[in-house]
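Cont'd.
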Amino acid sequence: MVIIMNPDATAENIKDVIEMIQDAGLAAKVMEGSQQRIVGVIGDKTRLASCAIDALPGVERSVSISKSYKLASREFHPQSSVIDVDGVPIGGDEFVVMAGPCAVESREQLLEAAEIAKKGGAQFLRGGAYKPRTSPYSFQGLEEEGLKYLAEAKEKTGLRIVTEVTEVEAVQTVAEYADLLQIGARNMQNFRLLKEVGRTQKPVMLKRGLAATLDEWLNAAEYILNEGNPNVIFCERGIRTYETYTRNTLDLSAVAAIKHLSHLPIIVDPSHGTGKWRFIKPMALAAVACGADGLIMEMHPNPAKALSDGPQSLTPDNYYDLMDGVTKLAKFMKDSGIKTQDL
Amino acid sequence: MVIIMNPDATAENIKDVIEMIQDAGLAAKVMEGSQQRIVGVIGDKTRLASCAIDALPGVERSVSISKSYKLASREFHPQSSVIDVDGVPIGGDEFVVMAGPCAVESREQLLEAAEIAKKGGAQFLRGGAYKPRTSPYSFQGLEEEGLKYLAEAKEKTGLRIVTEVTEVEAVQTVAEYADLLQIGARNMQNFRLLKEVGRTQKPVMLKRGLAATLDEWLNAAEYILNEGNPNVIFCERGIRTYETYTRNTLDLSAVAAIKHLSHLPIIVDPSHGTGKWRFIKPMALAAVACGADGLIMEMHPNPAKALSDGPQSLTPDNYYDLMDGVTKLAKFMKDSGIKTQDL
Amino acid sequence: MVIIMNPDATAENIKDVIEMIQDAGLAAKVMEGSQQRIVGVIGDKTRLASCAIDALPGVERSVSISKSYKLASREFHPQSSVIDVDGVPIGGDEFVVMAGPCAVESREQLLEAAEIAKKGGAQFLRGGAYKPRTSPYSFQGLEEEGLKYLAEAKEKTGLRIVTEVTEVEAVQTVAEYADLLQIGARNMQNFRLLKEVGRTQKPVMLKRGLAATLDEWLNAAEYILNEGNPNVIFCERGIRTYETYTRNTLDLSAVAAIKHLSHLPIIVDPSHGTGKWRFIKPMALAAVACGADGLIMEMHPNPAKALSDGPQSLTPDNYYDLMDGVTKLAKFMKDSGIKTQDL
Amino acid sequence: MVIIMNPDATAENIKDVIEMIQDAGLAAKVMEGSQQRIVGVIGDKTRLASCAIDALPGVERSVSISKSYKLASREFHPQSSVIDVDGVPIGGDEFVVMAGPCAVESREQLLEAAEIAKKGGAQFLRGGAYKPRTSPYSFQGLEEEGLKYLAEAKEKTGLRIVTEVTEVEAVQTVAEYADLLQIGARNMQNFRLLKEVGRTQKPVMLKRGLAATLDEWLNAAEYILNEGNPNVIFCERGIRTYETYTRNTLDLSAVAAIKHLSHLPIIVDPSHGTGKWRFIKPMALAAVACGADGLIMEMHPNPAKALSDGPQSLTPDNYYDLMDGVTKLAKFMKDSGIKTQDL
């Protein structure tokens, strides 16, 4: 940590800053600039993390230097992690695809969707049984009944199941049926829920919050890892910006940034990322090319009848067409040996 | 709802749209524009809310016209609501102030803060016992021990207690000690938690999410109201924007907007809103002038020793100075008869 | 400037960084942290401003410490500046109001608006003769003819004239008619235009860019000041955020921040700031209370017939009502001796 | 245009709205909803564009239906345009690359950069002679001297030249030397400058503004097209969001959206889009895969000595490596026949 003093800070001010640093068992070093003095902190900064050094008189601001997350960081774990999800590795050489409806609406709808997902080449079936909805009057999901349909679909198709868990009380139940627990964007900083899924050993897909910084996202993963569950997969699903033509702004540079900062895998959700079915394919292709480890997409046997997220769902035909392109591109990327970035 | 068709939509496309509307038990009306046709929906749009009309071929987009929240809306409740919090009315003629430390750190710290808050003229003591923190390694709060100190402080000073509840399991416990339950920004769309506080009759202060729209915020209130708890108070605490000089961007126009759209009271948190103690006073004065019903502020007996949020905490002296100005201004606004807006 | 090295930076990397600093005629000082080393730069950092130290191997990032603007900074000019605009001081004890239509539409409209502005108590008449419009097919302004009407309105009412200049070629012409040159939000970083108005001695009102940081805004002022024109007045007019209910998000904390960072006056535009006439009054009152030096507002004799910005224009009656409140509040703030902040 | 009335709008209010529509020579049609009435406008909405219908009593808001731009729209020009830039087609089957330093710093630096750009396979050399800089104290460019070096580099290498023009007075001069005129992000709504380049027949590369919506961007292109210059190429260069780890957030969905909405080509600038050299390659690959027509990137013979934008410049080695991947991927995309989207 570096503390930047005001140009008019007194010797007394500096003394107080040094004292607070030393009180925390750390060493301080003063550096004289031409206009301002700065104080460097030497030692483990987490001991000062909650200290209010910025509130001392004469302090302009402090700048954090080391990262607050450790377990998620590539610094301490240079090798990329591969997460095994019931036999399907994520983060290795193979690109994975998860597809299915936004919500599990009925047994028929789900089984039909599963067949289509399978036929197109996906390894996972997605489908929400617990639906967080903006309005209390919108469809809220079939809950455990939906989970049972997901389990049946797995049995029939062999597809792995990824589904969202929205509350602490449901973690055990969802973990019984799902192979991959999804933490949704609105719950990215529901710390109690993060801890709860951290206490299972189920792989967790952690979606980025609506307006979460990369640092907050990595720290949310840290909550899960810190409870003893090392199986975290990030999912970029678009961030909220001023642009309204797309539902969110898909931040594909987050793929490259997470790969640089962390050893954990990251997949991309172009459905929520754009909110418009016609932009899913180009964004899916872009995700493959920039080094993402997989995709999660909304596909519906009949999008126009979907109980939620219809406009961003692919029809079966659009899905097959997309999968054709994605599969070819993923194969090319692997075979060509193009390295997307130095990690 | 109005459905805007593509310029090249076919008669068949329009027929499908009309059919879907009629399937939902509603009536449709087509209007011919010079370049495009639009289809209007007549009837209760919540029946179509989850329908995926945008996914139909030939549809460009649909525009929602009526609001998805009802109980929170001023339309159906023209009179402003006054919420009674253990004898202190919020939303009426009197301006209320809530002050205290970010976190309850110790019995001594809290009781000292309570005396200062009281002396300055606040009606409420704030203080977090459950702390949602970005990093798992930061101080997470004293939990029930902290609640007991808050209760003791109430006994000693008569101040009402406002404190955050972050998880479903803690709602009953927090409700035993607190007069006003705070739902924090990160939990604004933790729908399970909203429902749980909605099942109590305790007044709830609902903070705006980091990047929540007014519509999402009003719908979050609707979750609480819809469970039978009518005692909701909004709290504007700044939104996340591109500007980083302030921690958040305090959106005071949200005060005027919420007053226009809803009958519920709204207070302002200039501490989180700005993140810098020196801007709290000017923003507190602005909040009074624009018609807010109260303020919630972080004040610490010794901000430089605070375990969290030090930089945005007022010292006791700054707090007294602020309260002097706020009290005078609130009195002036009341006496002068200046109406901030037509509701 | 402080340069933060990667944890795995080599001694060679550090040597290169030091060398680059010394090449720029500055001194470097290395500080050993527990995990990372940092290098401090001593001397006038503007000599390194365009240097690409971040691109050196082993560098994680650099943090700028001193400010890039000087003339606009309160650090080097502790006393608040009062700008004289044809006899009307801005930035002193008196609150100023500028009102008038978005665009000069006709002689009749403008003279009528001027009479209303005057009657309500404004000191300035606003009205655009050159209109920057999103679409090339929208009304683009009456240009010099509009300026003549403004001059006539000044003659008739004594109101000072503030009007926008959008292009270098028009600066001389606009300066002949206007008392205060407005640089619009879209031109805040039109550096050529900034320099041109900097070469006149006319006071300049510099609106904040749609998504400009405070630092960029202060640097834009620096362009004007650096050409020899010390008469700059900031105007906060709302920033672009994800919220769409209001046209922009009025950032009133920018008033407090600019007062803290700069000696120059700042006024507020609640019309563009909110985009809705019904929120102009509460935001105008808030602007007075938080220490702004004045207001600029859109008012139209008949908003429903306005050629631009109708929805955010006040009717004459709304304007009189607002002015009544603003005048009383401004008097109260002055008489009560409430200090909005320590500068 | 559709006008949504307040639930409590009177018959008189509706009559006034209809009258205003009819006054503009258009027809109105009222539709009764269950809670609210709406009024549809039939005819060419540009005749109402500047009308202030929202300001009429009883009006809640109006929703624009048809687009304000025509010449840029794919609706009226279904075939994708291919822009010829001195013999190099942009927007057709071949992917183009523009590379070079941020700023022209010296004859030697530029000629060296040109050789590297050429060797790597680029078709264009980029380099700024007029530099818009946040601070007036930063390096502002070599101006015409820089243009001469660019011309010399073209002569020596055959590379086409793309360079920024920042002011109306310089358009003629820059057009003499450049093959492609760049309008920078800060000038996207410098309408006077747009008109000026619109009066030449030189191809124009129009960068997206820092916080410009797609609609504003398309309208900015309309300014150029409307002056008679059909040769416009869009350039996505990242937008300003709350995320600060990357300099901007590269919005690759804008590529898909512009392709859908317009017939004009679009290229991507991953250098400004990310601000970090290490993320340029993955974003460049993503741009190829999602259907962009080309790339513009900053490359410097010695980034650590660059006078501007060093941290986001590629070294020659990184550039060759990137070009190897981009070239292979572009060839694969073309040969494989993968269609990124239906236009």
